[in-house]
Amino acid sequence: MGNCSGLHCRRERSMELKKDRRFDSMGAAHEGIKTVAIEKVCEFSTSSVTCVCIVTWNMNGKASSGDMAELIGWHRRFDLLAVGLQEVPKHDVGVQLQAALAETHRLLAAATMQSLQLFVFGPKNSQPFAKETRVDKHAVRGCGGLVGRKKGAVGVHIEFNGIRMVFISCHLSVHAAHARNVEERNSQCRHISHSLFAKDGNPCRRHCHVTVWMGDLNYRLQGISTHPARSLIRKNLHNLLTSKDQLLREAESGEVFDGYCEGSLSFKPTYKYDVGSNNYDTSYKVRVPSWTDRILFKIDSSSGIDAALHSYESIDRVKTSDHKPVRAHLCLKVKSV
User: Is residue 110 included in any domain, yes or no?
Assistant: First the structure.
């Protein structure tokens, strides 16, 4: 895949980014994860844009029909909806999502691996525009301490409006959940990236224009204890915690997600909450709040695709899990030739 320099919201900084490239121990250049600005107004012509709403949520084995409505929002201003879920309860969440979207959208593809699930919806009239749909999955070791809670990733490849996209919903192993096990998280990300859609020379990943990763990646804050972190959050200074974020640090070192893009972490850390509240963990573990739940994307620089990110937010109204859902709105446009 190429890098994200095609994003029009980053053009003015592209030269600065190239100058600021870092090098790993082998001398190879890397860019890490690039933070992109949120553009409130779409500069694209509405007739030539594919808007994608992306949602990730670790459900902690619980859900309600009201939660599904909150996830997808009340203003359906998107063409595609990709919902990646982790620790899904046993009842059929896909049916609940379809019911919530019945008036405007239909299911185009679903990839499931026990409690790890991914659904992609498109407009009711999307049949002529959606094709080449494929799904895949890749498990990693560990069961999260509970039978049936699978770890790894599921993926959907789809071509829509001439744009080839891969969506990946990921949940890393419980063995990698703690801050000290960051290298195991990195290794699992690399294995998933190399394994999904790689069977029998499947060209899906190699030829796609846009790759979106979402999920409970389990990267934590490191180098700060829970009470100083919570103090900054209470003062709405959580932006100061991004320098402690393992995922950004590891990407900066070239370990994972090199060249991917992410919106700024302007929302509060999404884990760990007391279920049924907006209060951080009050158990004896008093875990350090962390941005475990993320949405990252990468545009192939040779694809002729331009992109703009219009939102990146947590959904704090949902309180049935110890994680808050995260939602992004990404608009894609095929450039004129």
Answer: yes
Alpha-carbon distance of 282 to 266, in angstroms, equals 24
Residue 20 lies in a domain: no
Establish how many alpha carbons lie within 13 A of residue 64's alpha carbon, considering only the half-sphere containing its beta carbon.
9
The pairs formed by 127-134 with CB atoms below 8 angstroms and a separation of 24 or more are: 129/160, 129/161, 130/158, 130/159, 130/160, 131/158, 131/159, 132/157, 132/158, 132/159, 132/164, 133/108, 133/109, 133/157, 133/158, 133/159, 134/158, 134/197, 134/202, 134/204
pLDDT of 24 over the 80 cut: no
Between β-strands 293-299 and 22-23, what pairing exists: parallel, antiparallel or unpaired?
unpaired
Range(s) of the domain holding residue 136? 34-334
CA 192/CA 288 separation, integer angstroms: 27
φ, ψ at 36 (rounded to 5°): -105, 150
Domain with residue 253: its CATH number is: 3.60.10.10
The answer to whether position 294 is within a domain reads yes
Beta bridge partners of residue 51, listed in sequence order: 331
Terminal-residue alpha carbon distance, the chain: 21
pLDDT of 131: 81
Give tens-digit pLDDT for 274-321: 999 999 999 999 999 999 999 999 999 888 899 999 999 999 999 999
Establish if 303 belongs to a structural domain. Answer: yes
**Number of domain units in the chain:** 1
Tell me which residue has tokens 């659904």. 119
Residues 6+ apart with CB under 8 A from 80: 50, 51, 52, 53, 108, 120, 121, 122, 158, 160, 165
- Band (pLDDT 50/70/90 cuts) for residue 163 is very high
